[in-house]
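Standup notes, structure subgroup. Blocker cleared on the S-adenosyl-L-homocysteine input:
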Amino acid sequence: MTDELIPAGTVWLVGAGPGDPDLLTRKAAKLIESASVIFYDALVGKDIFELASASKRLVPVGKRSGRHSKDQGTINDMLVAAALAGERVVRLKGGDAGIFGRAAEETEALIENGITYHICPGVTAASAAAASAGLSLTLRGLARKLVFVTAHARAGEALDLDWQALADPGATLAIYMGKAAAATISRNLLDAGLPKDTPVLLIENASLPNERQFNTRLDLLSISARTALGSGPAMMLIGEAVRIRATAKGLLTVAD
Ligand code: SAH
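Run returned:
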């Protein structure tokens, strides 16, 4: 009986992975089967719901950039109300629930209302993108640091990132929600000292059948993002770790 996995009145925040249902963890699949109600984000792959029996409620709650269907406060309230009503609640988020998923706002609301919650990790988009491209996010001696960063600015606010810290030639930058800010990212990283030919890999719809990959370089990032990317979610991977792949494909000239 999988129902016992989620006691009535408790909430599981579950990472659904990057979209390919095979990248769902076994635990996530069990939790989806066990839930009585599932609140899910727009980035959760449709095929994943084949696991959910018709008897449970599937509630879409958002969120694609610029098309927020529910605000965060409303989502928090819905989770709290469902748990207080004795539902077995799954809150399904794309990728890993704890990476740029506003999980803390939800857990805070649950704590305030005395509701027990747990978190099931998922495969984050950066891992899926690197795996699809056949590359390692870290490189011994060359890319010793991996930075997960979001380039999403709040509405009406400028992107406020520590560019000097990000422009580290020994780091791999995994940039989430970077499409709209591609020009800003490129200009600021160049100004902060990263070389023009720093390799960049753009991956849209990682792990899905309509995945697209595009190798470019930092000074061409803006035009590349505009021309190569469609409307799907996209990752930018920046740094020497990406060069291996670009070189293997003969797309970049390696200086030395
Ligand atoms: N919690 C998610 C990230 C949510 S933020 C995770 O761990 O992956 C949403 C951003 O994630 C998107 O704008 C995009 O940058 C990235 N993303 C999510 N799914 C993706 C996918 N399948 N392919 C490429 N990027 C993806």
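Discussed briefly. Residues 18-19, 43, 93-96, 99-101, 124-125, 129, 176-177, 203-208, 233-235 surround S-adenosyl-L-homocysteine (CB under 6 Å).
Next: hand off to the docking folks.
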